[in-house]
Amino acid sequence: MKRILLGAAVLALSAGVALADNLAGYYGNTVVITAPDGKVTKSKVNADKTYTSVLPDGTTTKGTWAWKDDKTACFTQTEPAPAAGQAPACFPIDPHKVGDSWETPTPDGKAKIKYSLAAG
User: Fold this and answer.
1) pLDDT tens, 5-64?
2) Which long-range contacts does 72-76 make (Cβ < 8 Å, 24+ apart)?
3) Structural domain boundaries of the chain?
4) pLDDT (tens digit, 9 = 90+) per residue, 80-114?
């Protein structure tokens, strides 16, 4: 019985490590997000669970992030202060490395948002 419990504990800890690894390739690098209209946002996700984004108009936003579940991270804007009642933005996170590009559908499913991970 002790071996089964120890095995379960090791698996639980391994799951936590794998979860942290989903963003490991992002740390210290820039996520370039291109909206369907061509506007670009550049974001940095940090290992200390903070992030910064530079919006297409040059405005910088900052905030924190946390895991919602084993595949979804939620980003909460703290600067500038968000609108009252603004909920965190939650996204499924897949591991990526510098040079990767990928797409996701817009919320209405009619277009694609393009992402790439650039060094620095």
Assistant:
1) 333 333 333 344 444 569 999 999 999 999 999 999 999 999 999 999 999 999 999 999
2) 73/22, 73/23, 75/51
3) 2-118
4) 999 999 999 999 999 999 999 999 999 899 999 99
| Identity of residue 17 | V
Whole-angstrom Cα Rg for the chain: 17
Q: What are phi and psi of 49, to 5 degrees?
A: 70, 35
Cα–Cα distance measured from residue 52 to residue 27, given in angstroms and rounded to the nearest whole number: 12
Distance from C-alpha of 80 to C-alpha of 43, rounded to nearest angstrom = 15
**CA atoms lying within 13 Å on the CB side of residue 34:** 8
pTM metric for this prediction: 0.79
Q: What is the DSSP annotation of 52-106?
A: EEE-TTS-EEEEEEEESSSSEEEEEEEESPPPTTPPPEEEE-----TT-EEEEE-
